[in-house]
Amino acid sequence: MVDVVVGVVPYVPSGSMAFLPRDTFAYESALAYDGGDDGTSILRRVIRESPGFLRPGGALVLELGGDEANALRSDFERHGFGEVVVFEDDDGDVRGVEATFFRSGPAMIR
């Protein structure tokens, strides 16, 4: 078991891929960015599978954006994560989350 799982996985909604800068794809394929219809497909998988690696009290840290933190609220709760802290950049845009694994209990997103 580990204390921290960190993930930078594809989280761009499929419909938003066309809005990424073209140079984004100079060295990486679209697979590195495409997170499915709402951008949460792979994020949900990481949330579902990370409890198999985390000790109680451990943290899951994920890069994400938009309203994905709120969209994932029930996933965090269902898979045993408690407090979920949302990180924003200087412009107030959501950039990531840190979720604490407790095995049970409701997620509190702040």
Describe the structure.
The protein has 110 residues and is an alpha/beta fold. The chain has one domain (2-109): Vaccinia Virus protein VP39 (Rossmann fold, 3-Layer(aba) Sandwich). The chain is 17% helix and 31% strand. It is built from three helices and five strands, in the order βαβααβββ. It has helices spanning 41-49, 68-71, 73-78; strands at 2-7, 54-63, 81-88, 94-101, 108-109. β3 (81-88) and β4 (94-101) form a beta hairpin. The two termini are 27 Å apart. The model has no long low-confidence stretch (mean pLDDT 92).
Number of E-state strands: 5
Figure out the total of helices: 3
SS strand fraction: 25-35%
CATH topology: Rossmann fold
Gyration radius, rounded:
14 Å
Task: Report the average pLDDT across residues.
Answer: 92
Mass-distribution shape: globular
Poorly predicted regions: none
Top CATH class: Alpha Beta
Q: Let me know the CATH homologous superfamily.
A: Vaccinia Virus protein VP39
CATH architecture: 3-Layer(aba) Sandwich
**H and E string:** EHEHHEEE
- Structural domains: how many: 1
Distance between the termini: 27 Å
Estimated helix fraction: 10-25%
Oligomer: single chain
How are the strands of the biggest sheet laid out side by side?
1-2-4-3-5
